[in-house]
Design brief:
The complex is a heterodimer of chains A (114) and B (115). With 114 residues, chain A is mainly β. Chain A is built from no helices and eleven strands. With 115 residues, chain B is mostly beta strands. Chain B contains no helices and eleven strands. In chain B, the strands form two sheets. In chain B, strands 2, 4, 5, 6, 9, 10 and 11 form a seven-stranded mixed beta sheet that branches. In chain B, a hairpin with a 3-residue loop joins strand 4 and strand 5. Chain B is globular, with a radius of gyration of 13 Å. Chain B starts with a strand and ends with a strand. Classes of the chains: A mainly beta (114), B mainly beta (115).
Chain lengths: 114, 115
């Protein structure tokens, strides 16, 4: 089955700096890569996703890049703000195979220091 | 439109007791999922239901059973609770008609403690 590794497990940045979280996956058939944000005590919520036919996607201050050859993808947050503090999870899925499972990384706790 | 709802929000059980966690969605989604979340372990899939009438095991199914009662509802049952099942449980749903996109919408979670 799919295995997703996520690094780092914790990340502290100064407000205004950029943050980068990296994930690798094992199944070359995976074709859908979402990122979820989970604030303390809340449910995970999708913030951005990318499909395997796209190399990069941006949405305001967040962006995701995908390298299919190396089987890794990254989340980039620019101009970080205190409200970006949360746990971020990457995930991978082979949605074309009739399977609807997401395999999640173990999460990165991001702390933005004012 | 409530999205995905779960009951109860909190529960304390004694070892050996049984209970059922309830989940319902009002988005007309085909697929539903149960995850557990433990510190440092991310979200691990317990069981999922790709469509009404089907259920499949995920990564950590031992000690659990599920029922897809209808398209809206998917319940998770612990027949004989153990301390290792202390966790936060999330239900999620997705619309498989979104062919190449499997965005999952999560419920608010159930915090379960087994003493």
């Amino acid at each position: 089955g799919e295995n997703v590794e996520q690094h780092p497990s914790t990340l502290s940045v100064q407000e205004g700096d950029s943050a980068v979280i990296k994930c690798t996956y094992s199944d070359s058939a995976s074709n859908y890569f979402p990122w979820y944000k989970q604030e303390l005590g809340k449910r995970p919520q999708l913030i951005i996703d990318i499909r395997s036919n796209v190399g990069e996607k941006k949405d305001q201050r967040i962006a995701v890049t995908l390298n299919k050859t190396a089987k890794h993808f990254s989340l980039h947050i620019t101009e970080t703000q205190p409200e970006d503090s949360a746990v971020y999870f990457c995930a991978a899925s082979n949605s074309g195979a009739g399977s609807y499972q997401l395999t999640f990384g173990k999460g990165t706790k991001l702390s933005v220091i004012p | 439109n409530a999205g995905v709802t779960q009951t109860p929000k909190f529960q304390v059980l004694k070892t050996g007791q049984s209970m059922t966690l309830q989940c319902a969605q009002d988005m007309n989604h085909n697929s539903m999922y149960w995850y557990r979340q433990d510190p440092g372990m991310g979200l691990r899939l317990i069981y999922y239901s790709a469509s009404e009438g089907t259920t499949d095991k995920g990564e950590v199914p031992n000690g659990y059973n599920v029922s897809r009662l209808n398209k809206r509802e998917f319940s998770l049952r612990l027949e004989s609770a153990a301390p290792s099942q202390t966790s936060v449980y999330f239900c999620a749903s997705s619309d498989r008609r979104l062919a190449l996109r499997n965005e999952q919408f999560f419920g608010p979670g159930t915090r379960l403690t087994v003493l």
